[in-house]
Write a structure and sequence with these properties.
Helices cover about 65% and strands about 0% of the residues. By secondary structure, the chain is an all-alpha fold. The chain has two domains: about 35 residues; about 60 residues. Helix 3 packs antiparallel against helix 5 and helix 4 packs across helix 5. Its main location: membrane. Keywords: Cell membrane, Membrane, NAD, Quinone, Translocase, Transmembrane, Transmembrane helix, Transport, Ubiquinone.
Amino acid sequence: MGETQLEQYIPVLILLVVAVGLSGTILVSSVLFGKLGRRSRIKDTAYECGMLPIGEGNTRLSVKFYLVAMLFILFDIEVVFLYPWAVVYKEMLAKNANLIFGSMLTFLGILFVGYIYALKKRAFDWKTS
């Protein structure tokens, strides 16, 4: 019970020392023992799903892909905000019902306007480029 505040950090310090020591040991041993194995040109080539790595490594994607990804993130964040709101809705309803309901309607209204804007801009249409 008479521990000082610094004595409480001793297990964290021990864990840090063990983690740094173990990672250093693993890195040094991989460098030392990795050179001992037989290496050939075929073993050093990149393996990509059984295909030979010929051509450019990364292909260009359409802007539509990124647009759909950003829209997914937008509506995914909506669910992240809606779930906690639904969990505490009953408790907050007793305190200030109009404020909580109005704020969520405003939030959903703004998202609905964004959804209508995305529909007007044909962001969900995969056929166009």
